Structures are given as C-alpha cells and as structure tokens.
Amino acid sequence: MNWTTFGWAGIELEIPTTWELSGLSGDQKTGYLRLDDGEMPRLELKWAHTRRKKPDLHATLDEYFKLIRKTYKKGGELSFRRNVNFIKEDEFFKGRTVLGFSWKGSIRANGLIFHTGKRITIVQVMGRLKENWRPTVLRIFQSIVDRGDAPLTLWSAYGLKLGVPKAYKLERQKLLSGYLLFAFAAKPVRFQSVVKLAKLASSRLRNNGSVEDLDFSPPDRGRLSVERYGPAEVMLNDYKDTPNPLEAWFRAKYAKAIRGYGFEVKPETDSEDERLTLIGEQTRLYDGIPFSPVLMLDKLSKRTALVFHLWRCNHSNRIYVIQSIGSTNASPTVKKVAESIECH
Predict the structure, then answer these.
(1) Distance CA 278, CA 253 (A)
(2) Which domains does the chain have, with CATH numbers?
C-alpha cells in the first residue's frame, strides 16, 4: 500500500494514495470532509474553532454519535465505545487532549477526538467488519498533526499539493476532473504588525545589522489563487502554431484578468518544464504625462500589483497557474507557493 500526506485547513495526516476527497463543507474555521477509496467511505474529518481552554470532549462526542446514528442507522443496530486507547506513546499526547472511540454496525470505525490550541478535531477511519485494517488505522492516527500555527498551510486534492502562507485563508475551491481551483484571500495587515516590523528594523539598525532580509510587505487585502488544468496538449492545441503556445493560451484565457495592467514577461529557460512569470502593475489614463502634480498623485495613490506564474508540466501533461493580486508585489509569495507544488 502506498501512502501520501494529506493536508486541509492546517490538519495533516498520512493516508493511502487510493483515498480521495468525496465530500467537503464548511471553511477553515469549522468544516467537514470525507475521503473514499472508490468503494466506500474511508475517513471522515471534522474540525471546529473553540474559545474554551478545556472543552468537554465527551459532550462533543455525544453530538457526533447522534450524527453517526442518523447516517448509518439503515445498516442495523449500532454499538458505541468511548475511552478507547489506540496509541500508547506519551509523545502523541503532548499539547493535546485526546479521547478515543469506536462503533460498529454494518461497518466499523475507530476514531479520535482531540483538542489542541483553539481547535477541536474529530477523525474516524472506517472499514468492513472482516477487514484487517488496524495497521492502517494506527498509522493514520499516529501521523495526524495540527499545524494551524505553521508558516505554510498544506492543501491537498486529487494529486495536487500546495503550501500557502497562513495569512491567506481559503475562500472557495472548485474540484473537477480537468480543473482544480484554490482561491485564497489575506486580511489587511494590522497596525500592530507594522509597529512590530518597525521596532525590529530599528533594533537591527542600532546593532549595525541589515534590514534587507526583513519582510516589509505583508499581504494587504491580497488575493491568491492556484489552478491546475489538464490535459495540457488539449488546452494548447489551438495555439500550437504560435511562437509560444503557453503564453498565447494564457493571454487568451486570462484576457479579462490582465486587462488594464502593464506586464513584464520573464520566461525561465533553465527549467525542464515551460515556465513564465508575468509581473504587472495597474495602468492609468495619465501614464506618460510628464506633469508633476499628476506624478505626485500617483505616488500617493497605490497601484494594484498583479503577478502570474504558470508552467506546463510535461511529465503530467498539466498546466499550473498561480495568480496574486494586491497592493504589494507578491512575487516572493507566488514563488514560494510554486516551489511547494510537485507537479509529477
């Protein structure tokens, strides 16, 4: 059995590669997802934000059991157990309160409910009654971690994995056979964060240090999206006679998105895949007018910056497009997200 790391909303765990998303609802704060193997549901994951320092996990489990009864009551009588001890290692329990449970009906399931930080998470793994799936259950349980405070949040779906800075929150997704979309938004940076950066810079200067390595451009109402298209040869077929089919496809596909922007196109020649980076800035009617009051107004009024990074993965025959739009140039962010994606 082959395994892979699956991530969603800051939760990461190992799963068999044959399991894929079949159900999804909610958002990063409170949500639900289900993974199937093509024959039956295999894993359910629920998460919810909590303000309580010591939430009542037994009460939460009672409510979850009610949902299980409604969902699986057609399979006959259900029996439930709680306080099941699946994991023996003390290290697993550091920083979180854990409660194990199981139930059995026409199928059986083992599960964990745990509290860590400001989140309650429930994970349950399901199998057939005569299936020897305990090793699978234990591997999944031992691998599950909450990385809500990590710099990058892992998102996974249908072979696509991407790491996105935690400042960006998932707004919507579209998961189709030939097209995947993850769309994120970042809240405006708070004044306190600017003050912290200024103090840190001041400290570096007092100590004769350099502030060049500090990040002074946190996302300000920025938007970030990652898209995957396939198969690439079909997408580019209408542009195969152009000097650069990938760029021609992009300009036609994203004509509306890039309208009103001036772009610098940078092809990457040292990559085994065709790659293009387009860095643009909003154009204005008075561009090119050498009139000082106009130039002063332009300096006071910040222009919207737009960055695209796209490539054709020859091995997987897919096209990937990463887009960022905001008040600051997010090229480093786009590059970081692109580097997190293994296209084959």
Answers:
(1) 14
(2) 3-148 (3.40.1000.10), 160-186+222-340 (3.40.1000)
